């Protein structure tokens, strides 16, 4: 088996197991989850910023890369897009298909088991592509970059919302915080996206980044929501004032623009 097939196999097994645990969860998406974005003034979380970065998607073809159980594909559809959701996990896709029916969007969302490394779509098919916590699951960024470029329309956009692990020092320091860390989290630390992972995309795309959470990453210490929200708002200003500290942020939104250079 080559390296890519080994990686695909590992990811499939790992995620099939994870998604089995949630297959009986309530799959209905409350309207607040797709109506809330316009009301947000300051984006303190990478997720809402990623949605904003997609721009208007009404009537557009959008790919949800590594869609998992399809909750975000449903949100995209409710916001007016025609959606394709792909994932390597068969369990995820089975749940996602049920979710589409329960949320009455199965006519505009299609879910398929498919790998990032073998995207089976016509050339220049999508207006937009989004991956939520997906990029850090792919080791071969060059291969992905070429496929995304091929299936994206001219002037199209790819948005990734990822855990950011640019600073290994910070990751080591986390071990000294006297609060338990789940083993799962610890094993994910070395998979997080780093600035160097974006280099392969720069040949074909104009690459933009926005980093989130500096002090507000201390949510294992400060449990109160209002403190974390306050720190989140402070972080936005703080990272603008001291951009050299962005490399210590917790999350990153990456925007790839085609043909805009
Ligand atoms: C952290 S989960 C994120 C899922 C979803 N985007 C979300 O936000 O809930 C990463 C997803 O990537 C999928 N994945 C990993 N490797 C993949 C591959 N080679 N091709 C397609 N999907 C893959 C996993 O099965 C998993 O569902």
What report would you give on this structure?
The chain has 261 residues and is an alpha/beta fold. It has one domain: 3-Layer(aba) Sandwich (Rossmann fold), CATH 3.40.50. It is 36% helix and 20% strand. It contains nine helices and seven strands, in the order αααβαβαββαβααβαβ. Helix 5 (90-102) links the parallel strand 2 (82-87) and strand 3. The chain starts with a helix and ends with a strand. It binds S-adenosylmethionine (SAM). Residues 8, 11, 15, 66-68, 72, 87-89, 92, 115-117, 132-134, 137 line the site of S-adenosylmethionine.
Mean pLDDT over all positions? 91
Number of domains: 1
The kinds of small molecule bound in this structure are: S-adenosylmethionine
Classification by helices and strands: alpha/beta
Percent strand:
15-25%
Radius of gyration (Å): 18 Å
Q: Low-confidence spans: pLDDT under 50, at least 5 residues?
A: none
Determine the number of helices (DSSP H or I, runs of at least 4 residues): 9
Give the overall shape. globular
Looking at this structure, what is the CATH superfamily? Vaccinia Virus protein VP39
What is the second-level CATH architecture? 3-Layer(aba) Sandwich
